[in-house]
Amino acid sequence: MIVVEQKDLEDLVKKMIQAVGSEEIEAKVVADNLVEANLMGHDSHGVGLAPRYMGHAIMGTLTPGAEVTKITDNGVYLLLEGNMGYGQIIGRDAMQLGIEKVRETGAAIIGLRNVHHLGRIGAWGEMCARAGFISIHYVNATGHKPYVAPYGGYEARYSTNPYCTAIPATEKTPMLVLDMATSRVAQGKVRVAHYAEKQMPMPDALVGPNGKLTTDPGVMFRDPMGALLSFGEHKGYGLALLCDILAGGLAGGGTARPELNTGETIRNNMLTIIIDPEQFNSGGSFSAEFDSLVQFVKSGQPAEGFDKIRVAGEPEQETMTERKLNGVPIDTNTWEEMMKLGCENGLAPNDFDSVAKRIVE
Predict the structure, then answer these.
(1) Among 246, 259, 348, 354, which is 20 to 30 Å from 138 by CA?
(2) How far is Cα 161 from Cα 138, in angstroms, rounded to an integer?
(3) Do β-strands 227-228 and 206-207 pair in parallel, antiparallel, or remain unpaired?
(4) What pLDDT is stored for residue 360 in this prediction?
(5) How many helices and strands in the chain, by DSSP H and E?
């Protein structure tokens, strides 16, 4: 594993994104978002995606410099067109419009369609939570072959379709961010395992093209291709379908129809519901209720193999603290892919060699 310091990695990825058509400000936003995912331990949504983004920009299936367009603005409803711009830019601007809408109306329902990869969806939940609002996010993806098999089958039919809910922090409790793929693992985590030449740690995440369970991540990178399985069997499958129809259907960006599951890009759609908890005037304190629930849940005895009970969002903050101090580990296959695309588009080998501080086993 190669280890790179946060600032060096941000600067390097910024150069990579600039090399395929982005202005410096846009490239910095994209780079910072990707590195933040690595810092939080979500390497699947981190800098390993930069080569893929670059390839899409070169092919024209991602539009550097694109801005969000307002289609419908009707009361609490807001429909936005992403124009296949960087998700890190479009997602940020869409959430800002939604936050402004909540301040006007007390709630917002935002449909965002046709945007390139939105990255770690938790980033958009965190943005709303920092503004003091609860947010719920349903996401689907088209523009590429499907990855996930429905419950009861083994042929891929849709994507990993993330779901996220974020609740604002209080004086006593950090913000709670549940951000998850509806597949057993995110496709990017399979990519990370494949590039690191490791087996998947769980036996029930993948099936091969023969329909048999496997721990070999390579089945997702060979033809014929295998498939990811849903978390929680029929429960994750049901939530995945809800994400697809709510994100793609309501916003008009399209669901996992065969004609949309072709090509080589990442086209996301997202339905976001933003709530101002103060608008209910319930007579009680939502923050106090949140504090007491988390305190009670975490008061239990940890199970064997655990040092304490955590809630969603805590592992990411712990990993961020460690990686900001010690650097971001990147497997050598991912690093080589980053070098290849970077050097093919104007960067020098020394741009990479100079920041790769050390190699660890």
Answers:
(1) 259
(2) 7
(3) antiparallel
(4) 60
(5) 12, 13
User: Quick one: tokens of 223?
Assistant: 């033809």
Which ranges of the chain have pLDDT less than 50?
A: none
State the number of CA atoms in the 13 A half-sphere of 268 facing the CB. Answer: 26
Q: Tens digits of per-residue pLDDT, 336-350?
A: 999 999 999 999 999
Q: Which residues pair with 230 in a beta bridge?
A: 183
d(CA 7, CA 5): 6
Please give the structure tokens belonging to residue 42.
């979500």
The HSE-up count of residue 81 (CA atoms within 13 Å, CB side) is: 7
CA distance 251 to 247: 6
pLDDT tens digits, residue range 83-94? Answer: 999 999 999 999
Q: Hey, is 111 helix, strand or coil?
A: strand
Task: With both helix axes pointing from N to C terminus, report the angle between 6-18 and 332-344 in degrees, rounded to the nearest 10.
Answer: 40
DSSP result, 313-358: THHHHHHHHHHHHH-EEE-HHHHHHHHHHHHHTT--HHHHHTT--E
Find all residues with CB under 8 Å of 105, minimum gap 6, and list them.
75, 76
Percentages helix, strand, coil for the chain, rounded to the nearest 5? 45, 20, 40
N-terminal to C-terminal alpha carbon distance within the chain: 6
In angstroms, the CA 185 to CA 215 distance is: 12
> Model pTM greater than 0.85?
yes
Q: What is the CATH class of 1-59+300-355?
A: mainly alpha
Tokens of 346: 């104007």
Tokens of 31: 């780079």
**Dmax over Cα atoms in the chain, in whole Å?**
62
Q: In what order do the strands lie in the sheet with 77-81?
A: 69-74, 77-81, 107-115, 267-275, 134-142, 163-167, 176-180
Res 282: pLDDT? 81
